[in-house]
Write a structure and sequence with these properties.
Layout (H helix, E strand, L loop, with lengths): L6 H11 L10 H10 L8
């Protein structure tokens, strides 16, 4: 059963536990697009 959580609380908790310099993005598609624009590539193995 899924328990609803406040998005702000979840976001704050995630920000507390990620490495410095890591950016949270709403979807993997956005992350891949931004990485591609920056000259990086995504290769899933």
């Amino acid at each position: 059963m899924r328990v609803p959580h406040d998005a702000t609380v979840v976001y704050d908790e995630l920000r507390t536990h990620i490495l410095p310099g890591v950016h949270l993005v709403p979807a993997m598609v956005v992350a891949v697009e931004q990485a591609t624009r920056a000259g990086l590539s995504y290769h899933r193995q």
